[in-house]
Amino acid sequence: MERTSSYIFNHGDITKILYGGDYNPEQWPEEIWEEDMRLFRQAGIDCVTLNVFSWAALQPDEETYSFEKLDKIMDMARENRLHVILATSTAAHPAWMARRYPEVLRVEFNGMKRKFGGRHNSCPNSPVYQKYSARLAGKLALRYGEYENLIAWHVNNEYGGECYCENCEKAFRLWLQEKYKTLEEVNRAWNTSFWGHTFYDWDEIVAPNLLSEHFGEDRTMFQGISLDYRRFFSDSLLENFRGEYEAIKQHTPDIPITTNLMGFYKPLDYQKWGRYMDFISWDNYPANETPPAVTAMNHDLMRGIGGGKPFALMEQTPSVTNWLSYNALKRPGVMRLLSYQAVAHGADSVLFFQMRRTVGACEKYHGAVIDHAGHGNTRVFREIKALGGELKALGSQAMGSRTPAKAAILVSWENWWALEYSAGPSCDLKYLDEVERYYTAFYEQNIPVDIISSEDPLDGYGLVVLPVLYLVKDGIPDKLKVYVEGGGTLIATYFSGIVDQHDLVALGGYPGRLRSILGIWVEETDALPKEAANRFIWKGKAYPAELLCDIMHMETAREQAVYELDFYAGTPVISCNQLGKGKAWYIGTRSSHEFYHDLISHIAGEIGLKPVWNPVEGVEITERRKEGVRYLFFLNHKEEEAAFAMELDGESLLDGKAYGKGETAALPAKGVMIFRAAV
Ligand code: GLA
Ligand code: ZN
After folding, report:
1. Does ligand 1 come within 6 angstroms of the Cβ of 300?
2. How far is the CA of 669 from the centre of ligand 1 (A)?
3. Does any ligand 1 atom lie closer than 6 A to the CB of residue 158?
4. Which of 132, 233, 481, 584 has the most crowded CB, counting CB atoms within 10 A?
5. Residue-range domain boundaries for the chain
């Protein structure tokens, strides 16, 4: 049997893409369990995530732990040769804990103290929560560590939310002391001489929410304070994760640990989290109208957070969610298409939420492998079963393979937070909009792109894009300079380089510490109202200039295009600076979809960045590689068939068809082809 130890799950028995998902037999009478096993076998399901929300059952009171039911479930999974991803159940504390220790309950942004209810309602800085969550994780590891079918740990579930309680406030002060050492330094970093906010005692510092500095989620009087609270709170939840992680590792050092992330989830700095996770896993819930490029971007983010390694698709709905306003069904073929899209971007698993549709409470209308009908004679089950068969036949091919990207988009959570707290120049300035625009340009041209953090190395990339890098931390300018001087191409955009890591403006002219790399000085920035636009002509074509228009001077850069309208008509909007062996572009405004497309196409051509395949309208084409083999994924997102000429000799793996170069391949609507070719 082929060993797969280099894959994310370092478990020798995993020889195919994992297939299954969240399974809650504890919510059902045991008579049903056997039927579940039979249906799982039928559908080719080989992996279950267990114990996601069972804390109240595992610990009925403070002194008592009770594992008998979970023992039975674990034994059943083992007997049925199911791989288990075992969760720690700590995303919802038991009711007795909330009653006995109200400190475990969160305080909301508006100052409201929560009672028992919902989930994700535990304060990460409650010593009681910290103690009992880590203790439970340790007990589970001790008890189940010997199960040879236990392939991974799933800590908590979708960490998130926020808390502003007194424990958090106290912990925030300690976090600040650790970071800044002295109050003078805090006062400097937050510029507290503004509006007479000077602090003379650590205890004068309070959490920034609606009761203090905020007048809305993203509207704050003191960006520096709010920014630090975001960092602090992301770290607080990360500490919870690490508490459980350590407790588990003591007993099962070789079983990898993850927690399920949520793509571009603003409150948590996942790039920092990724450094503490053994492998990345995430939950993908696009709506039917979500553009496929956006889903692809989230997958690529997850791959990037894991340093380019394969990740796990931990959850997706097989058919429908319950929490949108309009919970449309996934159309026939779409579950399969989206499953392969995850694999196409680096997932080595296809897992669902949930295996059996629950009978009561808010998720009873959420899609599941086994529906309320209770049998396998449903459209959804048939589609799941068909995909199960395909994944079995595919085996370990493509597993563990990597995406060969030579372009990168640098994203930063701190920048995201700071930019959207910035109180000017435009309320429509949204970080992910700009990231998405650049990402889509790569996506539509089949140019693989990594989404990297500011800590990641830049060597190896021919092109690095920094969408609105407003906040520039120490060390970044030097790194970018070395990159460009060494021959790299950089694209920076409007409203970049404005502040340092404390959200203090870099004096001496915008874009601050990026100024010499970009060879420009931005003197002013004009914010245009929604419908307004300036214009520019670049390489003979007219494009709109929207949202923000930087008004700039060339220092060492050369102007590439100028504004056409308004008092700054004739001044540069796009520039390019030759620096050492490389080039640094500056795009001083937001423009159209077409512009981003043309810009990336032009630069890719200039530096020889190749698409993995020539674009085919409506068909997403990506590549994973390993051991001299290219796996090309063709995903037809359209409602019609797509036909295209093959550019290489090779084999289509799902139907076993061989193609010669120049032959025509046809993909049905929503169809998928995985094409194997030599490197
Ligand atoms: C999340 C959670 C699951 C479930 C699904 C429903 O992803 O992790 O427990 O609530 O949403 O879509
Ligand atoms: Zn709290």
Report:
1. no
2. 29
3. yes
4. 584
5. 18-164+254-394, 166-228, 407-607, 619-678
Average pLDDT of the residues in 552-572: 98
353 close to ligand 1 (CB < 6 Angstrom) = yes
357 lines ligand 1 (CB under 6 A): no
Mean pLDDT of the chain: 97
Which amino acid makes up residue 465?
V
Q: HSE (CB half, 13 Å, CA atoms) of 352?
A: 32
In tens, the pLDDT along 491-532 reads 999 999 999 999 999 999 999 999 999 999 999 999 999 999
The single residue of 162, 315, 444, 623 carrying the catalytic annotation is 315
CATH topology of domain 619-678: Immunoglobulin-like (2.60.40)
pLDDT band at 3 (very low <50, low <70, confident <90, very high): very low
Q: Tell whether the model's pLDDT for residue 604 goes beyond 60.
A: yes
Strands (E), 401-488: 407-410, 449-452, 463-466
pLDDT for residue 597: 98
The beta strands (E) that lie in 307-392 are given as: 311-315, 347-353
Q: Is 303 in the pocket of ligand 1 (CB under 6 A)?
A: no
156 lines ligand 1 (CB under 6 A): no
The verdict on whether 63 is a catalytic residue reads: no
Contact 196, 205 (CB under 8 A): no
Average pLDDT of the segment spanning 142-149: 97
Region of 367 (left: φ > 0; alpha: ψ -120 to 50; beta: rest) is: beta
Q: Is the CB of 314 under 6 A from ligand 1?
A: no
Q: Which of 27, 321, 363 to mutate to test the pocket of ligand 1 (most atoms within 8 A of CB)?
A: 363
DSSP 471: B
Query: Which residue has a Cα nearest atom 12 of ligand 1?
Result: 321
pLDDT digits (tens, 9 = 90+) for 361-395: 999 999 999 999 999 999 999 999 999 999 999 99
**pLDDT on residue 12:** 75
Residues 119-150, buried b or exposed e (16+ Cβ, 10 A)?
eebbbbbbebbbebbbbbbbbbbebbbebebb
pLDDT at position 4: 38
Q: Which fold has domain 18-164+254-394?
A: TIM Barrel (3.20.20)
pLDDT digits (tens, 9 = 90+) for 412-440: 999 999 999 999 999 999 999 999 999 99
Q: State whether the beta carbon of 259 lies less than 6 angstroms from ligand 1.
A: no
How remote is the C-alpha of 116 from its chain's centroid? Answer: 30
**DSSP secondary structure, 247-311, as one string:** HHHTT-TTS-EE-EE-SS-TTS-HHHHGGG-SS-EEE----TTS-HHHHHHHHHHHHHHTTT--E
Could you tell me the distance, in angstroms and rounded to a whole number, from the CA of residue 267 to the centre of ligand 2? 15
Q: How far apart are CA 391 and CA 18, in angstroms?
A: 8
Closest C-alpha residue for ligand 1 atom 3:
353
Pocket test of ligand 1: the residue of 283, 285, 358 to mutate, having most ligand atoms within 8 Å of its CB, is 283
Instruction: State which of 352, 353, 354, 366 you would mutate to test the pocket of ligand 1, scoring each by most atoms of that ligand within 8 A of its C-beta.
Output: 353
Tell me if residue 455 is catalytic: no
Q: Count how many Cα atoms sit within 13 Å of the Cα of residue 303 in the half-sphere of its side chain.
A: 29
CA-321 nearest atom, ligand 1: 12
Q: State the distance from the centre of ligand 1 to the C-alpha of 295, rounded, in angstroms.
A: 17
Tokens of 263: 């793509």
CATH code of the domain made up of 407-607: 3.40.50.880
